[in-house]
Amino acid sequence: MKLLAQQLDGIKHIFRTCYFGDIHNTAGGCAADPTKLGLSKQLSCDVCTDNLCNGSTSIVAGAFLIVAAAFCRLFM
């Protein structure tokens, strides 16, 4: 499960957790947890059913940057 929350100053946070339950009834899993969110506002909550679907896309971008830098160093 991936929950997106935004603080009052505009900073966004992503909370990733495992969800074991009915994927069509996520009201319990997506209910706002005041200890987790504090003064933040919940923007979205998604339950995914594919492998690795709630992973971070920044990891892919970082890996691409490392490969591109290595490629440039080898061939430039």
Topology:
Blueprint: E1 2-6, E2 12-16, H1 27-30, H2 34-37, E3 41-46, H3 57-75
Antiparallel strand pairs: 1-2, 1-3
Question: Would you kindly provide a written description of the structure presented here, covering whatever features stand out?
Answer:
The protein is α+β, with helices and mostly antiparallel strands. It has a domain at 1-50. The chain contains three helices and three strands. Strands 2-1-3 form a three-stranded antiparallel β-sheet, with no helix packed on it. The longest helix is centred in the last third of the chain and has 19 residues, at 57-75. The N and C termini lie far apart (43 Å). The model has no long low-confidence stretch (mean pLDDT 71).
Report the biggest beta sheet as strand number plus sense, adding barrel if it closes.
Answer: 3 strands, antiparallel
* Strands in their spatial order, largest beta sheet: 2-1-3
Q: Kindly state the percentage of residues in helix.
A: 25-40%
Tell me the series of helices and strands, N- to C-terminal: EEHHEH
The overall average pLDDT, rounded, is: 71
Rg value:
17 Å
Backbone shape: elongated
Fraction of residues in β-strands? 15-25%
Structural class: alpha+beta
- The CA-CA distance between the termini, in Å, is 43 Å
SS summary, helix count:
3
Low-confidence stretches: none
Query: How many DSSP-defined strands?
Result: 3
Protein name: Protein sleepless
Organism: Megaselia scalaris
Keywords: Membrane, Transmembrane, Transmembrane helix
